[in-house]
Amino acid sequence: MNQRVFNFSPGPATLPLPVLQEVQQNLLALPGAGASILEISHRSKTFEQIIAQAEANIRQLLNLPDEYHVLFLQGGASLQFSQVPMTFLRGSGRSADYMVTGSWAKRALAEAQREGGVRVIWDGKENNYSRVPKKGEYDVNPDAVYVHFTSNETIQGIQFPAEPETGDVPLVCDASSDFLSRPIDVKRYGLIYAGAQKNVGPAGVTIVIIRNDLLERVPDGLPTMLDYRVHAENHSLYNTPPVFAIYVVMLVTRWLLESIGGLEQMHAINQQKAQMLYDAIDRSEGFYRGHAQPDSRSLMNVTWRLPTEELEAQFVKEAKEAGLHELKGHRSVGGIRASIYNAMPIEGVRTLVEFMEDFRRRHA
Prior knowledge:
Elements: E1 6-7, H1 17-26, H2 45-62, E2 68-73, H3 76-88, E3 95-100, H4 103-112, E4 117-123, E5 147-150, E6 152-153, E7 158-159, E8 171-174, E9 191-195, E10 206-211, H5 212-215, H6 228-233, H7 243-260, H8 263-282, E11 289-290, E12 301-305, H9 309-321, E13 324-325, E14 336-339, H10 346-363
Parallel strand pairs: 1-13, 3-4, 3-5, 5-8, 8-9
Antiparallel strand pairs: 2-10, 6-7, 9-10, 11-12, 12-14
Helix pairs in contact: 1-7, 2-7, 3-4, 8-10
């Protein structure tokens, strides 16, 4: 099949078509380099310019103050689940606070518990992880090393509409599935990490944004590759980074700036796409049942059930035949999941909504 389908995969996810076209056009020889981006040295002037531009784009999109460092690492969010507590919790004699809102937050918690004392200040298990906590439902320990939360849960389809209140305690965020999808008050954060493969690029690169005061707390004795200071001092070039992935991040962030117009505009588009899907669910008279509670609905991952598992399987099968791929929900939640990250065009969501309406007419 050479024709592109609408790819609703939760990740690796769809990329902007203009970015893919530019990668294709210049894959054999990067302009000015005489070689492919897959072949050039990470020590070359060409790549130094690429990684510097990727960082500059991220700084511009987030309006990032100088006291924050942008690092391009490897290992995904899964390695950050360990690196964060290994750095700040191990041997500190203090505890960290964790909010458990779904599958990824649970994984982060499990890794932190290996490194030291952890206190769960909110757990959504009793409501089947269908919402995020409201203000006043959690109590932050003012002496905590940090507070960790997952801004968007891809599996359950829930998202924090705003950052939790943590006072003076540093806020650490796994932003893998909504990074650069909307403006954030970056000064509220001590550290943000995100695997790129949802909104920002291909799998293989992890973006970490860390504030100076946290960088200064990094203890001696960590493995070199797990020391944030080493990567900051070497501008993410201590070892060979994922060159191709960083190149695509540069192109995607440039697309966000030049084609979309920034994060305010991207957020508005994402709200429009999500509203189209949630409206289709809400007007289905119970045929489609959303998993997330309305005030916690994700703009990135829309999850819902049908009356029976047999109908859900039929929905996924017919949708794929209609060019709507990767709609099967995660096994822990079941049902349907449509991941509509930044690069999913409105046309794709509109086509899915039309399919949903037709499927309901035929099977309700």
